[in-house]
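[step 3/7] fold_predict: job queued, chain A
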Amino acid sequence: MGIVSPGFRGRPRSKGVELPPGQYLVEDFPVLSAGPTPRVPLDRWEFSVTTESGETHRWSWAELLALPSERMTVDLHCVTRWSKLRTPWQGVSLDTLLAGVETAADFVMADSYGGYTTNLPLQDLRNGQAWIAYRYDGKDLSAEHGGPARLLVPHLYLWKSAKWVRGLRLLTQDEPGFWESAGYHDYGDPWREQRYQGD
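[step 4/7] structure written:
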């Protein structure tokens, strides 16, 4: 992948707002990505969940939209130190998508159109903690922010919320994704400031 968009370091911390350590508040929605922005036609878009035994569950765009959706308002925390509070999204809970999936896996690799990957514990995608989000602030999710759909895992740093998500691979052993292979933390809890391996 290409060079990463520049980060935002050195700005003053926000006062009067509780933020994870080392974060500052923004009102805009910065766009940071590795490599070019994929443009995925909806008639060719597909999301899949593949178990550790190779069984694959697939949803087309129409099938995803036909599932029950949720509207959630969540705070976002980027590892480049900006935080954006009370962001409004709409999407399908991973609880819904994983409901019919039989697995003994403990880990997940999220795969994106464009080749990006990131690893997560499966338990962090269950119990109302994660979604496949396709609308932001009442509008279809733009490609710059990961549209047509992105993984949304707001309790972890934003690199775990894979843009342009195309599928989840369920794994019995953890494997590093794109940024994790480059030294980013395997888990990425912003409240424990887990930015890099060893934090």
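[step 5/7] annotate
The two ends are 25 Å apart (CA to CA).
The chain has three helices and eleven strands.
exit 0
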